[in-house]
């Protein structure tokens, strides 16, 4: 099956669908290479930027035409995934399509038809693993999306694998997760011990498995606020503006828009003498008063909504008390874009600071629109369009209200100054109450990664038979909760990686991975401790190959320069060890070849004997040798020359001494003969004066 496992997952959102491809070592391979400390960690997943692809619009647009979702929407995504998963690995690769907000809004019958068609199309057009349609092709709730995001963030930060390096106090080593999209916002965190006991029924039980087969369990609180995403909040804000003025008013002052900007209620700019200018309905007129914008967006938090289960944060939604001494949050999506696209382009490595952020937003949003429009044309804030810029002031005010008055993030950080710097390795953590991120360790913080981490850990065999996944936290329960969500397939259904590799070696088979799916660290080791020796070994192989391919004369000359002696000649004193070794490796000129030159025959008159093409095929018996070259052009033809036996007597190329005594060399010349590093399987350098082949082309053996 090969040493790598692959996974394909599609994030089917409201505006489009994005495919992600992930890769990790087969559990048996990972176990065989892991140190005792690494055995206590989760499987290590790898992805690349070009392994993702997005198409628009979303799958929810196929509600009334489900049969079109495959050829018109999924086809390019599946083709992209198949181009990055090796052909022989496809049947072992799980496929997931998990839909979010857009599909939740479809009528039940349309949603079921689209999901059914997706599963049928994938099964009919690929060999990806889709054993259970309900598990692999589904619409996930916002809570599940938030939980996967929490897994992804902590996985990348190192809170799972190195808890001792992320001790925040009170035996707490994980990070909270905040996500804000267009329609909803999510929060996920592990409460401190006191709150976890007090609100145990409100938590999710999450179980993963490390490489040594041991379970990792966490109790996590996760919830979602529908209507609290940036776009939905803006819609509710505009509705409140309309209700706050007289119905006969056509111009609605909007402090969240820059002064001088006029837009329709849908946000389209109204230019003088444009088609929009003749619209008689209400218009928004920007006043550029950011402080007023913050004040008017505060009521959108619904802080006064009845709380049926104390404590609540906003919208009447129950959330256990957050202990900011140990709960440090990372925010993605709108939290990142709204804090970094315009207001923090020069210091992306710094954590969020309320005072600095508010000053920058206020300075920007109080500018006249004409000045801002000129800055857009001059690329003052990078490649941002007018629509993004005109909306950023509202989003900034909403983010400030959500973070500080909604969730309760402290406005001033009490942590050490150096804690505001982004970490450069898994050994450092985010110690501020809040920090917006887009990537960690160069990997996008996507909930799809969290889903695949769960699946990869489910493939590690465990001795406790406790499945990987999540469900309701039922204290004291001895059985799985009824809503337990399994992570994926079963490890014992998969072929054994090391057994497959051993069988391939015996049979002489090799698996070639496409260049775009193989990196140097795949060959040289993924961890720093293994990469240096691997690199040295690789360079030695390259040098040896170059040395052997540079020609007999050049090799002999170079050897003489290195060891300070000329090539050995017949009748000369017994050579030293270096000379004898060079002779055995075929690095010195043979006496027969030198005798021809001494007799006055020009080098240009020296010919190779005729031989048939099939004579040098090492695969004539249906098998291949680890010591024989497998690629055409690497094996060196045999010269029809004389040889010297062990006693120094010249014998003919076809004499019994050549066939019986000299065949002990046992390997061909060059890379084909030396095999891997010129060493036989027993670990000793092959014995003999020079490499020999029989006339049939096969290697001579004892």
Automatic annotation (TrEMBL):
Q: Which InterPro entries match?
A: GDA1_CD39_NTPase
Q: Which PROSITE patterns match?
A: GDA1_CD39_NTPASE
Molecular function as annotated in GO: ATP binding; GDP phosphatase activity; ribonucleoside triphosphate phosphatase activity; UDP phosphatase activity
Q: Which GO terms describe its cellular component?
A: Golgi apparatus; membrane
Q: Where does ATP bind?
A: 182-186
* Catalytic-site annotation from UniProt: 145 (proton acceptor)
Biological process according to GO:
CTP metabolic process; UDP catabolic process
Region Disordered: which residues? 604-631
Q: Which UniProt keywords apply?
A: ATP-binding, Hydrolase, Membrane, Nucleotide-binding, Transmembrane, Transmembrane helix
Transmembrane residue ranges:
532-551
Q: Which Pfam family, any one, appears in the UniProt record?
A: GDA1_CD39
Instruction: State the PANTHER family in the record.
Output: ADENOSINE/GUANOSINE DIPHOSPHATASE (PTHR11782), NUCLEOSIDE-DIPHOSPHATASE MIG-23 (PTHR11782:SF121)
**What family does the Swiss-Prot or TrEMBL record give for this protein?**
Belongs to the GDA1/CD39 NTPase family.
Q: What is this protein called?
A: Nucleoside diphosphatase
């Amino acid at each position: 099956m090969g040493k790598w496992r692959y996974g394909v997952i599609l994030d089917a959102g409201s505006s489009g669908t994005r495919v992600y491809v992930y890769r990790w070592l087969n559990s048996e391979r990972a176990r065989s290479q892991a140190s005792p400390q690494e055995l206590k960690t989760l499987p290590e997943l790898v992805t690349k930027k070009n392994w993702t692809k997005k198409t628009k619009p979303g799958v929810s647009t196929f509600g009334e035409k489900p049969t079109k979702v495959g050829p018109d929407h999924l086809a390019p995504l599946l083709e992209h995934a198949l181009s990055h998963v090796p052909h022989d690995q496809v049947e072992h690769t799980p496929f997931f399509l998990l839909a979010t907000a857009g599909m939740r809004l479809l009528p039940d019958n349309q949603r079921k038809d689209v999901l059914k068609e997706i599963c049928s199309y994938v099964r009919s057009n690929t060999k990806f693993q889709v054993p259970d349609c309900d598990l692999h092709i589904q619409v996930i709730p916002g809570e599940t999306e938030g939980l996967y995001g929490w897994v992804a963030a902590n996985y990348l930060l190192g809170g799972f694998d190195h808890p001792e390096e992320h001790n925040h106090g009170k035996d707490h080593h994980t990070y909270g997760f905040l996500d804000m999209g267009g329609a909803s916002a999510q929060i996920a965190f592990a409460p401190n011990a006191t709150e976890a006991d007090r609100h145990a029924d409100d938590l999710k039980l999450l179980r993963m498995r490390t490489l040594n087969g041991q379970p990792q369990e966490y109790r996590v609180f996760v919830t979602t606020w529908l209507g609290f995403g940036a776009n939905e909040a803006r819609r509710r804000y505009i509705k409140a503006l309309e209700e706050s003025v007289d119905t006969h008013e056509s111009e609605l002052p909007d402090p969240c828009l820059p002064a001088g900007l006029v837009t329709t209620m849908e946000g389209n700019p109204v230019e003088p003498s444009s088609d929009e200018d003749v619209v008689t309905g209400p218009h928004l007129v920007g006043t550029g008063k950011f402080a007023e914008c913050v004040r008017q967006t505060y009521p959108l938090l619904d802080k006064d909504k009845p709380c049926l289960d104390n404590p609540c944060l906003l919208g009447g939604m129950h959330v256990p008390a957050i202990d900011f001494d140990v709960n440090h949050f990372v925010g993605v999506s709108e939290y990142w874009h709204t804090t970094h696209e315009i207001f923090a382009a020069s210091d992306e490595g710094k954590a969020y600071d309320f005072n600095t952020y508010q000053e920058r937003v206020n300075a920007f949003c109080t500018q006249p629109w004409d000045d801002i429009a000129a800055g857009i044309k001059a690329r003052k804030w990078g490649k941002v369009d007018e629509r993004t810029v005109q909306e950023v002031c509202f989003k900034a005010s909403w983010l400030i209200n959500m973070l500080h008055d909604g969730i309760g993030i402290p406005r001033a950080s009490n942590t050490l100054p150096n804690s505001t710097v982004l970490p450069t390795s898994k050994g450092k953590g985010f110690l501020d109450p809040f920090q917006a991120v887009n990537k960690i360790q160069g990997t996008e913080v996507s909930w799809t990664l969290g889903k695949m981490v769960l699946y990869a850990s489910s493939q590690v065999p465990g001795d406790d038979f406790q499945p990987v996944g999540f469900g309701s936290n039922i204290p004291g329960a001895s059985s799985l909760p009824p809503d337990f969500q399994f992570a994926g397939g079963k490890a014992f259904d998969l072929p054994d990686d090391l057994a497959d590799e051993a069988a391939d070696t015996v049979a002489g088979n090799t698996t070639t991975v496409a260049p775009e799916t193989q990196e140097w660290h795949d060959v040289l080791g993924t961890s720093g401790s293994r990469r240096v020796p691997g690199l040295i070994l690789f360079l030695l192989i390259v040098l040896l190959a170059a040395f052997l391919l540079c020609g007999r004369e050049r090799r002999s000359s170079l050897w003489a320069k290195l060891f300070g002696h000329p090539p050995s000649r017949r009748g000369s004193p017994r050579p030293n060890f270096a000379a004898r070794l060079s002779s055995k490796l075929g690095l010195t000129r043979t006496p027969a070849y030198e005798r021809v030159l001494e007799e006055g025959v020009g080098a240009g008159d020296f010919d190779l004997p005729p031989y048939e093409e099939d004579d040098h095929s090492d695969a004539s018996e249906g098998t291949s040798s680890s010591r024989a070259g497998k690629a055409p052009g690497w094996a060196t033809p045999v010269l029809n020359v004389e040889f010297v036996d062990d006693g120094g007597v010249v014998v003919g190329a076809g004499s019994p001494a050549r066939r019986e005594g000299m065949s002990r060399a046992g390997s061909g010349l060059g890379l084909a003969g030396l095999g891997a590093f010129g060493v036989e399987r027993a670990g000793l350098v092959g014995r003999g004066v020079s490499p020999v082949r029989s006339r049939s082309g096969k290697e001579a053996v004892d």
